[in-house]
Amino acid sequence: MRRNDAPQPFQYQGSKRVIASAILSKLDMRSYSLLVEPFAGSAAVSIRAAMEGKVNSLWLNDANEPLIDLWNAILHDTENLIEQYTATWAFQKYDPKEYYGIVRKRFNSHPEPADLLYLLSRAVKGAIRYDSVGEFNQSPDNRRLGTRPAELARRLRKISSVMKSCTFTSSIDYRDLIHRYEPGQVWYMDPPYEGVSKQRDSRYVSTICRDEFEEFLGHLNDQGVPFLLSYDGRTGEKTYGQPLPSELGLERVEILAGRSTTSTLQGRDEQTVEALYLSPVLEVSSLTGEDAGAGQMAIDFASEDYARAS
Ligand SMILES: C[S@@+](CC[C@H](N)C(=O)[O-])C[C@H]1O[C@@H](n2cnc3c(N)ncnc32)[C@H](O)[C@@H]1O
User: Fold this and answer.
1) Which of 129-133, 216-220, 274-278 comes out lowest in average pLDDT?
2) Percentage of the chain lying above the pLDDT 90 cut
3) What is the C-alpha separation between 217 and 233, in angstroms, rounded?
4) 1-310 CATH fold
5) What does the pLDDT read at residue 239?
6) Mutation choice for ligand 1 from 62, 212, 227, CB with most ligand atoms inside 8 A
7) How far apart are the first and last CA of the chain?
8) How far is the CA of 192 from the centre of ligand 1 (A)?
9) Angle, nearest 10°, between helix axes 149-163 and 44-51?
10) What is the pTM of this model?
11) What is the DSSP string of 243-291?
């Protein structure tokens, strides 16, 4: 399997698809029976691990309940979800912009997985944004109509066939997962970057407070939880997130995520480098070289498989 070809169920801001393989290459998965993603999002790392046959079982958790409902539909109600998405996608043809607004309104009054799938497929940057009263308010990207149903169906069937019998899901705050830790688990964490998510009191999604998160990492260490954590990084000269304090005893490695498409569009040739922290008790892989490498070129999701609006 090439580095970037694990199927993506939906575009998602912050997806780790391009570097999922590089992240997994740091881990000796043979030492663990369950890979837990407390901040699953589009679960790029879990999908990759499942496609490579590296895991016995997976646990996807995300505070965003409608997102976990979508995951449950992808895994266990795949054909129904595809049928509904196909109908929604086809309906938009008369006025894609207005239709997005209709679906968004419907989703805000009654969140259904197929509607969220459509919204994510068309939302600017695949970003989930909620307003102060917890309503999804992200605008559509009017240059695109969203993933074509046939392509989406292919991906969702593939994901479901590989993951449905070995994946647990939950929608709880990451801090509550510590009570469910058992030996055999390994965690991959990709929390929202500081400054990206500010909806602490919103209906669905909370952000993380840095101090609390550092304290939480200390608890994970005390309990001997093995984990990998994506946290900070940089594109060219610009850094995002602050490195974690050395007292936590984490090993910090850098992963080359590829050329930044945003910078390229602005005429700059800049590489993005992402930090990955490894907990002290983690069983690391002894692989080096090619397998420990990273994505070569960040994929512009839009250019890949999106239907463009005419
Ligand atoms: C950066 S995204 C994860 C992206 C993921 N690695 C992927 O490949 O798509 C962070 C996720 O954390 C979730 N989240 C935010 N606050 C949370 C909390 N307190 N507990 C659990 N999940 C949370 C968000 O809903 C979001 O999906």
Assistant:
1) 129-133
2) 67
3) 19
4) Rossmann fold (3.40.50)
5) 87
6) 62
7) 34
8) 6
9) 70
10) 0.89
11) PPPGGG--EEEEEEEEE-HHHHHTT---EEEEEEEE-TT--B----GGG
